[in-house]
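Entry 14. Ran structure prediction on the chain below.
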Amino acid sequence: MLATVQAPKISSPLQPVLPPDVRRPLSWGRLHGASPALLIAATAARYRGLVLAIAADSQAALRLETELRVFGGADLDVLAFPDWETLPYDLFSPHQDIVSRRLTTLYRLPQRRRGVLVVPVATLMQRLAPRGYLDGYALLLKVGERLALEPFRQRLEAAGYVCVSQVVERGEFAVRGSILDLFPMGTERPYRIELFDDEVESIRDFDPDTQLSVTKVEHIDLLPAREFPLDKETVTRFRQAYRRQFEGDPQRGAIYREVSAGHAPGGIEYYLPLFFERTATLFDYLPANTLAIRLEGADQALAAFQDQIMERYEQRRHDAERPLLPPPLLFLDAAQVESALAGRLRIELRETEDAEFNYPTEPPPALPFEPRAPQPGAALQTFLAAFPGRVLMAAESAGRREALLDTLRGHGLQATVCEGWTEFLAREDLRLAVAVAPLEQGLLLTEPPLAVIAEPQLYGERVRQRRRRGPSRDPDAIIRNLTDLNPGAPVVHEEHGIGRYAGLERLEVAGIDGEFVVVEYAGGDRLYVPVASLHLLSRYTGAAPENAPLHKLGSGQWEKARRKAAEQVSDAAAELLDLYARREARPGHAFALPEADYAVFAAAFPFEETPDQQVAIEAVIADLRSGKPMDRVVCGDVGFGKTEVAMRAAFVAVQDGRQVAVLAPTTLLAQQHYQNFLDRFADWPVRIELLSRFRSAKQQTD
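Output, structure tokens:
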């Protein structure tokens, strides 16, 4: 008797099939492009519970989070629990922005009954603070309530907040008389709390760059600044646990000494179990009816991360001054993760078709614009003519959407602007639409016939990275730069002038223990600068270091030097004003900007523009189009993207029928720029030549 093999069932991606029970996972197959995100969003809309989406790594988790916001729209609540972005047993701590997102997610999770939580595998394996920690250290502060400033400050410090002179990043607070500035975790802006005696009179958020108040609020939620407390009771528990865990004299350990002093040294997160009686895992924070969906590659990532943990533990475990906790105290292993998932509804996603339910999706096709071809948009036009369904084109931003519309019109294609996937799906009259949707990969459904075309399909892959909005100064980086200075090196203080760097000292001022930079001036006077005010110091770049003219504190020398410099600046400003007045009166050439071609050229840049680079590009292009003589200097260190700014300007000039000359200081650099320009302009009918001593006399004259 022959056994029959049941073929996989075909299901609609808009109506995904849910697992019937927890006995075994359900498998979904034939998932290509952004279709996993579409199915997860559709599942979250149908399932009456939280959906846990497990990605292979941080990059896949970030891409999935973005796609879920596109396909789920405003109705889908998407939470992310990001990775620390440090390697196991690293010597430095995660960025405060990451800690802020993690704490916010943990705080919100127990109340979440619907939505999607996106987690990388490595994060799922971490042991966390117990649930009671956030409840015990979170605080609601309202206008009109009583607030004793000194006890509140002690509570903030116990929760990991740092007292500074000026608040610029999360986890900081500053006290100035009856005003308390505070940047809570999980918020976009810091808050200024004004007290009248011991009553909260007003709460306003403010801009950390300008320090100016913006809007009034009635209350704020305060989360702890770290994933562990630092109050006296917890420090005592840490010391006792440390002595139980590690043999020998604990004072030899730098971690033990720092925590005993109430500080949080770099990498302290990998000693988290010593702060608590017992730890928790992410599974302890999840509702009981959570549906777990494991994406392609998650299993392999689970095993690979476990191997990485053991490898790094074996490499670093023999350092007597920094002993390590064994991996089982810090991480779940693969078997424990599987056991924690076993009691929940589960779905596994695959690209292949060996699944219980396959979905009618196909790999998104590449539809590149070919600027040098007789019909640059032939691939897209052919696809649209042959595809029987409707098409949504996804642009990364509103500006890119307008450029894409211009490009489509240039190829004889008319598209309608819509708000996003939800509107596109609802409006069956939209045959070709364009929406702002920052997707890195497209989507192609055969039933129903729907396609989403992402920009990389048209312009090629771009290297993207998530950019955190952060303050312009990085105290840790500044400290590292100062440690490069030798004692005696000259430095300049904005208010007190030139002195010599004399090292770092830890002092207690007004009951607060802190680190200070010592600057020695003429006559042996010393100035102690708090670490939080390091932005007031800079390196001396005048005469030779040994000949630096030291100032005397309180003598007025620095004020006199600044006044004289201001007079010279005023004279130079008058000359520049005259020069620029004559420049403004002289007409220049207003370059035409071919919007469609420029968009294609810009999209071929294989990296994401940095914010400063984008500002420089826009300023230079605006100069070229202004019709006035151009006078702009673009400054930046090596590797900061100045060449791409020049290439954008060169493209605009040659498209307007002009020649461009690029001057380089050395022959070698000229050769490098020549190769870079050849690569960048390879798809455009532009002749690029090199004039240097590497060329023969005939080549130079030709």
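Confidence is low (pLDDT under 50) at residues 1-7, 465-480. Will compare against last week's run tomorrow.
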